[in-house]
Amino acid sequence: MISIPMIPAAVRSRKDRAQARRRYAELQDALDEAVDGLYTAGGHAERAALLEAAADATTQLSMLHTAAWGPEADADGRTAASALSGQATLLRQVAVTERIGAGQGGHGDLRAVLPGDTDVEMHAWAELADTDDPACRAACLRRLQILIAASGDDRAVGVLTLLARVETRRAANLNRSGLPGWWFHAPRVVIGVFFVAVGAIVAAPGLDGHTRDLLLGALLGVYGVCFGVLWLIARRGGRAR
């Protein structure tokens, strides 16, 4: 009978930690990608989806952190995993405010993060949900950051600092261009739809040459009108500056 040697516990532990760190790096990349997308996201629903993706990645990071890097506790004994879990909670709450802005929920979906008297906190969350203006959202996020940091959870609130910085950048971009965020995506959508429609008309069976020419002419007209509208919006934005 052949005896298979056991893998020493120390070797197995190093192997498990290396695997955990590789997975941790993958999740960190996913988190960074979601956060980067917030700078250019075109609307409430898109930002909500990115925030939810960031929250999911952060939750998984919190579950993996101790295995990958150890507890990394602060002076009060709170572990990095606990801080990441708190960050995930805050990301989901901000995502709820974006869902409300998109008409996909109401204030009843908001949940207090702090213990005890929650009136001031819930008012701040509701104010965040009710505003579209990036500068106002940045101010709301900073106010929430102060409230939550005062409770002692100063490691988790770093994510609110980051989100406030995102909103401040969005406000600066909006003020500089005078254009809504969706405007920058619209030309690509129009061009893509145009070429798909041209391909469909050219490849459509049973169309005689005259009908095909009429359809292509109409499509070109619609294409021109779309870009005319975008141009007018751009001119109005430029004058608003």
Structural notes for this entry:
- The chain is mainly alpha-helical and 241 residues long.
- It has two domains: 10-177, no CATH class; 182-240.
- Helix content is 73%, strand content 0%.
- It is built from eight helices and no strands.
- It has helices at residues 9-38, 44-69, 80-101, 119-130, 134-150, 158-177, 186-203, 209-240.
- The protein is elongated.
- The termini are far apart.
Chart the SSEs and their pairings:
Elements: H1 9-38, H2 44-69, H3 80-101, H4 119-130, H5 134-150, H6 158-177, H7 186-203, H8 209-240
Helix pairs in contact: 1-2, 2-3, 3-4, 4-5, 5-6, 7-8
Summarize the structure.
With 241 residues, the chain is mainly alpha-helical.
* SSE order: HHHHHHHH
- Compute the average pLDDT: 82
SSE class: mainly alpha
Measure the end-to-end span: 84 Å
The biggest beta sheet is recorded as: none
